[in-house]
Amino acid sequence: PRRHTNLPAPHAGLIGRSQAVEKVRTLIAAGRLVTLTGPGGVGKTRLAVEVVSGLTGSYADGVWLVELAARAWSTEAGAATTGNELAELVAATLGIRDDASPGPLQGRRPRTLLDRLSDALRTQRLLLVLDNCEHVVEAAASLARALLRDAPGVRILATSQEPLSLPGEQLWPVPPLDLPADTADQAALRTSSAVRLFLDRAAAAAPGFALSDDNARAVASICRRLDGIPLALELAATRVRVLGVRELARRLDDRFRLLTGGHRGAPARQRTLRAMIDWSWELLTAAEQAVLRRLAIHSDGCGLEAAESVCAGAGVKPAEVLDLLARLVDRSLVLVAHEADGPRYRLLESVAAYLLERLRETEHERVRRAHARYYAEFAEQAGSFLRGPDQQHWLRRLDAETANIRSALDSAAADGDGHLMRRLVHAMAWYWFLRGRLTEANRYLTLALALPQDQPVRSKGAAGPAAGSAAGRVPDRSGTVAWRTGMSLLSGAPDGPARHSRAVLDVYEGIRDPHERTRAGWLLGFALTRFGDFAVGEKLLNRVLTESRALGDRWALAAGLSTRGMQTYVCGDLRASRREAEESLELFHESGDQWGRLQATAVLGRLAEIEGDYPQAARLHRDGLRTAEDLGLWTDASMRWSELGRIALLTGDHARAEEFHERGRRLAVEQGDQPAEEFAEIGLALGARRQGGIDRAESYLRRWLEWNRQFDAEYGAALILAELGFVAELRGDAETALALHRQGLAAARDTGDPRAIALALEGLAGARALAGHPGRAARLLGAASAARTSAGAPLPAPERGDVDRITGTLRAALGEAGFAAEYAQGIALGPDSELLNP
After folding, report:
1. pLDDT of res. 279
2. Position 397 pLDDT exceeds 90
3. Which of 30, 436, 650, 714 places its Cα 20 to 30 Å from the Cα of 450?
4. What residues contact 803, with CB distance under 8 A and at least 6 apart?
5. Which residues make Cβ contacts (< 8 Å) with residue 558, sequence separation at least 6?
6. In angstroms, rounded to a whole number, what is the distance separating the alpha carbons of residues 253 and 234?
7. pLDDT in tens, 438-452
8. Ramachandran assignment for 377, one of left (phi > 0), alpha (psi -120 to 50 degrees), beta (any other)
9. Are 639 and 676 in contact (CB under 8 A)?
10. In the predicted model, what is the mean pLDDT of residues 434-463?
């Protein structure tokens, strides 16, 4: 009997495509032409065979696979393969003689082989698989068009790197296999179809191989770096027996020499990774090849504007890039994602590695410099919008281009191009600050300062103005020094900023550009105050405020006011703090800067807390948290979580207080922001002590005491010493408690904050009571009350636990009248009296 199929028997099971198989079968049932598209090696042929192997009983005249890549076509120079040539192969596959009856088409036009094939199939009911159409796509389209028109019982499933572009064609893009998440554990890895395929083929090549805790990371890395492309994974799996997975993962940078062990029975194009990509490359025109290899200079993809700028030149006009990109997308060599900011074009990692080799053979230096120039201009454009109403949009765009901008920075550094480097680092400095990328900022700012400051480097033959947009204004070196100093302080200079206060002022004085002075000067003042150097920080901020008012720089004025508002809050001048925060908020509202509004409302939230208006404080901090999360400002989000934790602590919700502080702590650790981490852990310590966990509280406090001392940060040290003193008192150790509270009082007096002074005096009262000196203790409590009254910040009820405990002890020791007399004497003496004898 005549065969009704020529489908090959699969040599291994199909993994990860079960849903696709069913959906493609549904498409075939609904329409007569279905095309599987996708990059080389993604498994289009294997999927097609699996799809149709389950349909052989549905077609009376069979299911037939026609392998269009099995022979060379049109060997004459310049000749194009025709539908007739393909018809010859189809006829041979189906066993149809090409001298078949002329049929009803005779007499209408000259008879062709395609006509005769259409006649022969006119009454048949069959499913035809046209495999690998991409290298003869025009001829394949002609063949399919004729058969669908003249043979109503024929259905076609095509595989191609690009569509046939015929009416009624249904496309099914075949994606790479799904990849494991970066954080996937061993159980999650097993759910990834890419991992399952690799494990299956590796076990076949190396019997006994299995996923384990020891090799899971390497397996996941291999699957990710090979983009989940089945052919690449199968080639890699054949190397497991010789190399093992860890060494295999390590050697993937040399993937084209490594992945060469395909099955002997496979087509030549599928025996090595390079051959797989060569097959696609050789089908391209010279212009398509040029755009594709230039696209590879981008890191993590690019937008259309970048592609038009960087991929043009040397035979390709900017206006031609879009059409060429569209053809490359159609050919499955470029992936496109339609994102909020427009299309984004990406390459699979193996394709990008191949193209970089091609680029290095031809025009790598020219394209690399064009890429660096484009992203310098992009960064400058983006940076100009980061302090206004479009802040969120441009933060998102810079996030998407982070890898490209790093490449541009590295390129400028490699070229020794100090001008381009300074343009880039100044454009990026505020973005780095907002994103908390202080290490990255320090690295590139330091590199920029180390480079020679001569004329920009230009690629050979480059037009003048293009080498930097006329050269966008090159920032002065003094500004670079200021930004580097500020970022260094924020990231924690080893010797502490307070010991370099004079040097910081000198840096500020050296900034030549007046607008740069106000903005970089604000950063320097902010950094100093964040680490507790209020004296020099205040001096700098006052200068910034004066100069920004004179210049009309309303952003620098608003930023300076918000920072000074926090500083005056810390130092206990609550009226000034509110005045400055409210003016800052109004200015930031005018400019539309959401980050700025976040800073001003943080101060107002703390003021509401001091006034005991906890609902208002919580509302302000929740609003701030939403803004921070919307903008992706995770350091600010950390601080807002901790602020909410403090409100929960004050309202007696200890479970939420711990949850919120812990969220703040985790975010701070992820961002490498030590002040935010300290703020969260001090909150955890306060909560632990109030619930009796004094050992846990002490472990947090001791760590941060040393850190504050490293930076001479007296405000932070004052709070920590007070808390440690209370821990010692609760343990019954009066001597240690006295020593700690005395240190805390000295630190508090250095800050000038009456609330910090009051806290230290309250702690000393507890220690004196424990040591058997109730009269002195009562006077200390009275002096503490006077300090709080002077600041307009009486101790709110939720924070009276320690004072009430100590007061109860003293009333029991002195009697009500004796306590009242000593307490009144303390009020009269005041917090600064030497007669207190703390």
Report:
1. 86
2. yes
3. 436
4. 762, 781, 784, 795
5. 583, 584, 587, 588, 591, 593, 596, 600
6. 17
7. 889 999 999 999 998
8. alpha
9. yes
10. 77
How far is the CA of 586 from the CAs of 388, 553, 589, in angstroms? 14, 14, 5
Categorize the per-residue pLDDT at 457 as very low, low, confident or very high, splitting at 50, 70 and 90: low
Residue length, the chain? 838
Token readout for 75 is: 């060997």
Sequence-distant (6+) residues with CB within 8 A of 398 are 379, 382, 405, 428, 431
What is the spatial distance between Cα 73 and Cα 133, in angstroms, rounded to a whole number? 12
CATH of 614-712, one of 3.40.50.150, 3.90.76.10, 1.10.472.80, 1.25.40.10: 1.25.40.10
Please determine, for residue 74, whether its predicted confidence score (pLDDT) is greater than 60.
Answer: no
CB burial class (10 A; 0-12, 13-18, 19+) of residue 655?
exposed
SS3 324: helix
| Beta carbons within 8 Å of 19's beta carbon, 6+ residues apart | none
Domain segments of the chain: what residues?
Answer: 18-173, 186-277, 614-712, 750-838
Of 3-12, 324-333, 645-654, the poorest mean pLDDT is in 3-12
Nearest to 537 by CA among 574, 555, 573, 563: 563
Q: Are strands 126-131 and 63-67 parallel, antiparallel or unpaired?
A: parallel
Question: Which residue intervals of 95-208 are DSSP H helices?
Answer: 113-121, 137-150, 186-189, 193-205
pTM, full prediction = 0.83
Distance CA 531, CA 202 (A): 55
Query: For residue 715, what pLDDT is reported?
Result: 75
DSSP 361-409: HHTHHHHHHHHHHHHHHHHHHHHTTTTSTTHHHHHHHHHHTHHHHHHHH
- Section 532-555 average pLDDT: 91
- What pLDDT is attached to residue 254? 86
Strands (E), 76-216: 126-131, 154-160, 170-173
pLDDT digits (tens, 9 = 90+) for 206-234: 999 999 999 999 999 999 999 999 999 99
pLDDT score at 466: 35
DSSP code string of 242-294: HHHHHHHHHGGGGHHHH-----TTS-GGGSSHHHHHHHHHTTS-HHHHHHHHH
Q: Are 446 and 484 in contact (CB under 8 A)?
A: yes
Give the pLDDT confidence score for residue 462 in this predicted structure: 39
Can you list the alpha helix ranges (DSSP code H) found in 574-693?
Answer: 574-591, 594-610, 614-631, 634-650, 654-671, 674-690
Q: Identify the H or E element spanning 26.
A: helix 18-30
Residue 835 to residue 35: CA distance in whole angstroms = 93
Fold match flag (18-173 vs 614-712): no
